[in-house]
Design goal:
Cytidine Deaminase, domain 2, nine-stranded mixed β-sheet, 20 strands, elongated
């Protein structure tokens, strides 16, 4: 359909606002909202900043006040129609007297859907599908979680230009620059869980924790939602509800409490660490089992192990574990987004099974010529079976390059 220029412009702003919630709203979606007055002027803006906090529509309506009556609301996700930790946004829009609501993406959650129908039933004009692709991209982690019942997976790797992640003797520290490593920690901090395989644990004894430096942009992963996504406007002031006021009513995730597995408040967010360890071989003194963050060890149902840890027993699949079951179990624990940092074998298995939703690659201007490849066997027997990707972003990170891509054919998103 042909989208009026005004609708496109205001929805683009709502998508941009939604991006500010990345890393703090889980297990809820990121949502942005723009409210116009009856004359078509912007009266309020807002986004969902943290789970349990006010939804985007409520924030924007509060700023708009009486100016919302007879106006238009642009929302990136269908207004909810249920009562959870907050009330239904559909009722808030009706109470504010909004005459028209423009929606980008329908809510796939049957518990929350129905807002559009309620609004129409009460005489509100509702338009759906405006900038739907852009709104899906900014909210892709949660939409994967809601539609497929599993966690969204971002696979990250660092390699030389010839695709090597370690030298012949196994050494790998450091292929990429301090700037690239700092960027990885920012992306880790925005995820709900960091996943690695037992091979990585035995070879490198990693902490798998997020140690981000100061930043207002924790995770702008090529979502195509416009400049400034994930950033906070300068000169912001803290509000009593834990958000901020920035002159235009935008909430700020900084300072808000997190939610879900392993999350804490600002500066204390602790993504869940997950070790994929079929036989339960994780050493008891491994750093991944320390108390710096919660850890879950996924092992086979029949594994004979004396490991003292939080174990997740899963069915076997071939020589490893059922990774689909792993992602479903993590989703049941409100893990919306997974940051996969396992070695080449585990990454290959995720890719083989169609469970990689996004790839983040850090390439260093260096060559090894031999050594460990970044990716192991991934189910490709001939060139025609190659896993094709499309690029979202190519960015310099210090002396390195960060590439963000996704499978050319995405999994079916509807259940």
């Amino acid at each position: 359909m042909e989208i009026p220029a005004q609708d496109a412009a205001h929805m683009a702003r709502a998508v941009e606002l939604a991006g500010h919630g990345h890393g703090t709203t889980s297990p809820n979606p990121v949502v942005g909202c723009v409210v116009l007055d009856v004359e078509g002027r912007v009266a309020g803006e807002g986004f969902h900043a943290y789970a349990g906090g006010p939804h985007a529509e409520v924030v924007a309506l509060a700023q708009a006040g009486e100016r919302a009556r007879g106006g238009t609301a642009y929302v990136t996700l269908e207004p909810c129609d249920h009562t959870g930790r907050t009330g239904p946004c559909s009722l808030a829009l009706l109470a504010a007297g909004v005459a028209r609501v423009v929606i980008a993406v329908p809510d796939p959650n049957p518990k929350a859907a129905g807002g559009a129908a309620r609004l129409r039933a009460h005489g509100v004009s509702v338009t759906s599908g405006v900038l739907g692709a852009e709104a899906e991209r900014v909210n892709e982690e949660w939409l994967t979680y809601a539609r497929l019942g599993r966690s969204h997976v971002t696979w990250k790797f660092a390699a030389t230009l010839d695709g090597r992640s370690a030298a012949e003797d196994g050494t790998s520290q450091w292929i990429t620059s301090p700037e690239a490593r700092a960027d990885v920690h920012r992306l880790r901090a925005a995820a709900d869980a960091i996943v690695a395989g037992i091979g990585t644990v035995l070879a490198d004894d990693p902490h798998l924790t997020a140690r981000p430096g100061p930043t207002n942009d924790p995770a702008s992963l090529g979502r195509g939602s416009g400049a400034g996504v994930g950033r906070v406007a300068a000169g912001s002031e803290t509000r009593p509800d834990g958000g901020v006021s920035v002159g235009d009513g935008i909430g700020n995730p900084a300072g808000n409490p997190g939610a879900g597995a392993g999350r804490g408040g600002a500066g204390g967010r602790r993504p869940l660490r997950v070790v994929v360890d079929t036989r339960g071989r994780t050493p008891q003194d491994a750093r991944v089992l320390d108390d710096s963050a919660p850890t879950l060890v996924a092992t086979a149902e029949d594994a004979d192990t004396g490991l003292k840890a939080d174990l997740l027993r899963l069915p076997r699949h071939g020589r490893g574990l059922d990774l689909e079951a792993l992602l479903e179990e993590l989703a049941a624990r409100e893990v919306v987004s997974v940051f996969l940092e396992g070695g080449p074998t585990l990454a290959g298995e995720f890719l083989r099974r169609g469970l990689v939703d996004r790839v983040v690659a850090y390439l260093a201007p260096a060559l090894l010529g031999s050594g460990r490849a970044a990716l192991g066997a991934a189910g490709v027997g001939t060139i025609g079976e190659m896993h094709r990707l499309t690029f979202d972003e190519i960015s310099p990170i210090g002396p390195d390059v960060r590439l963000i891509a996704r499978p050319a054919t995405q999994p079916v998103r509807e259940q």
